[in-house]
From TrEMBL:
Its EC number is 2.7.1.48. It holds the Pfam family PRK. It catalyses: cytidine + ATP = CMP + ADP + H(+); uridine + ATP = UMP + ADP + H(+). It is found in: Cytoplasm. This is Uridine kinase. GO terms for molecular function: ATP binding; cytidine kinase activity; uridine kinase activity. Pathway: Pyrimidine metabolism; CTP biosynthesis via salvage pathway; CTP from cytidine: step 1/3; Pyrimidine metabolism; UMP biosynthesis via salvage pathway; UMP from uridine: step 1/1.
Amino acid sequence: MQQKKPIVIGVTGGSASGKTSVSRAIFDHFSGHSLLLLAQDAYYKKSDMPFSERKKINYDHPLAFDTPLLKDHLNRLIHRQAVDQPVYDYTIHNRSDRTVHLAPKDVIILEGILILDDAELRDMMDIKVFVDTDDDIRVIRRIKRDMVSRGRSLDSIINQYLKTVKPMYHQFVEPSKRYADLIVPEGGQNQVAIDLLVTKIKAILAERGLQE
């Protein structure tokens, strides 16, 4: 008997746009279902450079990610095969030695800043979502997040934002908005958009015989 294809939902947007909030809202709604969250951030490339050099890497450029590995893992999950997802450690700016075993699920939420930049990744998605949030709001959220959870100084956060985060957003992330099926202003606060997504996901689940 042929296995039923999982639903793949891509959620993208700029750094601190609310991608995770949208992904979590979907995840929580389908908490009783077969579902997993796949984060592009886990697929930053492993580097052998010293720490002082790793800090200088442009982590907002497409080349910072091991996209072939991400595509391979997503393809395996779509074909109902388990994968060992890498774990990225922000404190050392490098991939750790640990992995997380992910079993295939009926609903896969792929979240990351550059997931719509790659045509092959886009082709694997059933629903493509772009979370559209003002630059000022995003930089304030990023400062709060990085100082609290990643132990970074205010100066380093601002310098990185001005040098790479903002220009890469306008060069790569924002242009990918044209590939989105749904644009969600203000992220997880937009309950109407969340409800629309949930309704669409339920319809595809029913269509593929993957009902809750």
